[in-house]
Amino acid sequence: MPELPEVEALATDLAERLVGRAIRRVDVTEIAALKTYDPSVDALRGATVTDVHRRGKHLVVSVDSGLHLVVHLARSGWIRWRDAAPRPTAGRGRGPLAARVQLEPDGDGIDITEQATQKRLALHVVRHPEQVLSIATLGPEPLEPSFTEERFAGILAKAGRGQIKGVLRDQQRIAGIGNAYSDEILHAARMSPFHPASMPPEDVHRLFEALRHVLGEAVERARGVKVSSLKAEKQQGMRVHGRKGEACPVCGDTVRQVIYADSTFEYCATCQTGGKPLADRVLSRLGVRR
């Protein structure tokens, strides 16, 4: 799933390509992805893009008519830049394309795709981004100056006995962190994914420093990377996530995996759990909200 660093890089790249360009048309090919009907996507025709930015895991494309196209890429969504007008696709069958934005004057633009059996990608055309519920209920941005260690401590205290892995991923508590970066943050903090969120101040400090370092480093690493290379860059930067069976780069122990529901996470037992392997748990025990 694209998370804060990748969506930030996507927003930066798309801002350079889209701002100042007029929209020729927006075609939605996966009708279930469109979650709004008023205003319609046709209302974007002829409008000029004024800004592209990120909020949590959402991309927000703003135009001069006051409307916003909000894209949530979910687990398997992505943005692909297209240098030329698209060729006709009639007769090719259903594919990964969810929506297509064409620009004036040449028809170049972006394809919004989703490579998944379960379609979760979401598109909204709204007059204000806060009209999208998943934006209106977002927690604070973890790299903003206002996200202080004191504020973080309050979030953890409120979560109580909730497992820290799920708390970090809960978008209503902290915006933008998903499965991959929560694995990386907890590994950097040398903390078990099942550790209770309520913890002593010294543990809060260690976790806060790990969170800011891991996310900040990932954002810098992704800065300037081409959209087509962002996924590969993300994986290369991971220390434990997606590296089951490999050696931990810190201690050399084997990275282990826990499977729960339709997802997984990875960790190092030596670094994070005192050498004790974790038993599998179900997703509901982690209390995750997308």
UniProtKB/TrEMBL annotation:
Keywords of the record: DNA damage, DNA repair, DNA-binding, Glycosidase, Hydrolase, Lyase, Metal-binding, Multifunctional enzyme, Zinc, Zinc-finger
Domain FPG-type: 239-273
A GO term, aspect molecular function: lyase activity
Reactions the enzyme catalyzes: Hydrolysis of DNA containing ring-opened 7-methylguanine residues, releasing 2,6-diamino-4-hydroxy-5-(N-methyl)formamidopyrimidine
Keyword check for Zinc-finger: yes
Superkingdom of this protein's organism: Bacteria
Pfam families for the chain: Fapy_DNA_glyco, H2TH
Domain Formamidopyrimidine-DNA glycosylase catalytic: start-end pairs: 2-95
Swiss-Prot/TrEMBL GO biological process terms: base-excision repair
Sequence similarity: Belongs to the FPG family.
Official protein name in the record: Uncharacterized protein
UniProt organism field: Agrococcus pavilionensis RW1
